[in-house]
Specification:
The protein is mainly alpha-helical and about 160 residues long. Helix content is about 50%, strand content about 10%. It contains six helices and three strands.
């Protein structure tokens, strides 16, 4: 017999006497094939909530990936957080046992996600006339040989680009 923690709310079968489905949960429960997933989803959500309650400061960025045969797999966003969480695992496991979860082992899986950064808007300030004049003089002073051709053409392109603005 499986023992469920106190925070676990079992799935209830929808009947024809109930109101039409309004929310996502009711929608899922009203479909036979999707309703089969509801007990697992409810169980994982309850476990996620209990984990966040057990370690509120550290578990905010973590997620429960899997809980099967007593082994809990947790997604951690960085190795630094995984190292800190690893130090707390015995206390964390005891707290989950106290809450009714039969956790025999905890595995951490680092899953670095792409952090959505704000796109940088670079403001390109045009070169001053004094700077453009200096680059022009440098181009004129360079010897006309194969070693300097790439630099001279880059200086010409820079000056032309600045004048086009």
């Amino acid at each position: 017999m499986t023992m469920w923690p106190s925070s676990f709310i079992p799935y209830k079968q929808a009947t024809s006497l109930q109101k039409p489905a309004k929310g996502a949960v009711e929608f899922l429960r009203s479909h036979d094939k999707l309703a089969v997933l509801m007990p697992s989803v409810s169980r994982m959500a309850a476990l996620q909530k209990d984990c966040a309650t057990a370690l509120p400061a550290m578990f905010a960025q973590c997620a429960v990936l899997q809980f099967e045969a007593g082994q809990l797999v947790i997604a951690v966003p960085s190795t630094a957080l995984a190292a800190r969480l690893k130090q707390q695992l015995p206390k964390f496991q005891d707290e989950l046992l106290r809450r009714g979860w039969q956790v025999t082992a905890i595995r951490l899986k680092v899953q670095v996600s792409k952090i959505a950064e704000k796109p940088r808007t670079s403001v390109k300030t045009p070169l001053s006339t004094k700077a453009l004049h200096a680059f022009g003089e440098l181009e004129d002073c360079l010897e006309d040989n194969p070693r300097n051709q790439a630099l001279k053409s880059a200086l010409r392109a820079l000056i032309r680009h600045q004048h086009d603005k």
